[in-house]
Design a protein that fits this description.
single chain; 463 residues; TIM Barrel
Length: 463
């Protein structure tokens, strides 16, 4: 346990660093050259691993012998658990089987280029050795190790970039007040200073981006929506509090100019953000109900989804997706000009579920064969269709036929493309397929179609 005096000194020191960003907070955001280069890398990377891991993995979606509905990392809210009952869970979190080298190697073998891991979820628990709070993995668990430092070191070693997911809302901190839409049963006093809470949040972010973990790829924020006001006549960006976003964003960009900032707020990006994400949806869609107020920006895009139905580890969740489903998510994202971030929820002992490991290995085998149709591409010249999507890179257009039943017979009509189609070949074996230049249509024999994704390569002049 850290002494209160030490915490105050550390907090004061970090606050000095934070305050220096306020002077320029109102200036228009101009991304640095390092940031622009990082955006290009990010768009080329296309595929990442999401990891939701925290003490919520201990109950694993169950509380007092009952399965709690919905996603497991929300168990504190969904089961209405007060902090007095939730805090003891930390003493049961002892991930002795955590092997960061294995995690990173699995991500690489799956064809993933970056990892995004929860540094702090909505329960406020820090998965690193925080100096401004003892509500963290080093002070409150028997494991007593900084797993973020261990993972960061391994990512640097194996050449994988690392993002930190960071919750803006906090069900544990007493100064997170006024209360938002969630966490009302935490048992905190109905008072607090939101400005002090934001100072605390910025101090913890300073710990994460201040250099201890080396260069990081960026911060993936979540929780802004907890304070959102949704009333007729109110703008979709209205909130009960001032989140001081630019101050926080400027702090991060000053300490690590290349770091990319995204915010899962489900509205159009704010100034200072570098990429836009879509939770459980493709850009422009709202099937999950989160993105009704989000217009697609010109920033790099990312879609995210889970290997099963929950983000964090949930014992009862056996709905692991098939290879076909996962490939369709990956190429669907690429066809919508977005990255795909696929989530795994590790167990409280620090292991990936065996089903998730099998999924990652299957994806790795697929992308080893078809990766050129994903990596470094942008959304193709043909808008997403019922039969699939297209991607493009240089003079090549890749056609992904993910639903052969949506095509009329063996012929697929395409809109007129810029440039002359020189040749069409099946990516799997290189065989040449007919292309009717007058009708701008290609023929794919039924026997040539793949049950997961039939990938064609169009070689085009003038692209």
């Amino acid at each position: 346990m850290k002494s209160s005096g030490f915490r105050k000194i550390a907090f004061a020191f970090l606050t000095v660093l934070i305050v220096t960003t306020q002077v320029n907070a109102q200036a228009p955001y101009k991304p640095s050259a390092e940031n622009i280069e990082a955006r290009r890398w990010y768009q080329d990377a296309k595929f990442g691993l999401f990891i939701h891991w925290g003490i919520y993995s201990v109950p694993g979606g169950e509380w007092k012998g009952q399965i709690v509905p919905s996603i497991s990392e929300w168990i504190m809210h969904n089961a209405k658990i007060p902090n007095t009952e939730y805090e003891p869970i930390a003493a049961e979190f002892n991930p002795t089987q955590f092997d960061p080298a294995e995690w990173v190697a699995l991500a690489k073998a799956a064809g993933m280029k970056y990892i995004t891991i929860t540094s702090k979820h909505h329960d406020g628990f820090a998965m690193w050795d925080s100096k401004v709070s003892d509500w963290d993995i080093v002070d409150r668990t028997p494991y007593k190790k900084d797993v973020l430092r261990m993972l960061a070191d391994e990512c640097h070693k194996q050449g994988i970039k690392l993002f930190f997911y960071h919750s803006q809302l906090d069900w544990h901190h007493p100064d997170y007040y006024p209360r938002g839409h969630t966490g009302q049963h935490a048992g905190r006093p109905e008072s607090g200073d939101f400005s002090k809470y934001l100072d605390y949040m910025d101090a913890q972010l300073t710990e994460l981006v201040g250099g201890k973990y080396g260069k990081i790829a960026g911060i993936w924020f979540d929780g802004w929506w907890d304070q959102q006001i949704k009333e007729p006549g109110k703008p979709v960006t209205a909130t009960k509090v001032d989140w001081r976003l630019r101050r926080t964003y400027d702090l991060i960009h000053r300490l690590q100019p290349q770091a990319l900032i995204g915010n899962n707020h489900h509205v159009t990006p704010f100034e200072g953000e570098d990429f836009q994400m879509f939770e459980k949806d493709l850009p422009g869609q709202n099937t999950a109900g989160f993105n009704a107020d989000a217009t697609i920006s010109n920033l790099p895009l990312e879609a995210c989804d889970t290997t099963n139905d929950s983000w964090g580890y949930k014992k009862s969740d056996r709905k692991f997706k098939s290879l076909k489903q996962l490939v369709h998510m990956l190429v669907g994202s690429a066809g919508h000009n977005a990255n795909f971030l696929l989530n795994v929820g590790p167990t409280p002992t620090g292991e990936f579920p065996p089903e998730a490991i099998a999924q990652l290995k299957q994806l790795g085998a697929w992308i080893a064969e078809y990766g050129d149709s994903v990596y470094g591409t942008r959304g193709g010249p043909v808008a997403p269709q019922k039969w699939g999507v297209t991607t493009q890179k240089g003079s090549k257009v890749y056609v992904h036929i993910t639903d052969a039943t949506a095509t009329a017979g063996e012929e697929i009509a395409l809109p007129e493309l810029k440039g002359r189609v020189k040749r069409v070949r099946l990516m799997k074996d290189g065989s040449v397929l007919p292309f009717d230049t007058k009708k701008s249509s290609l023929t794919v024999p039924r026997l040539s179609r793949d049950p997961v994704d039939t990938v064609l390569v169009l070689e085009v002049d003038g692209r």
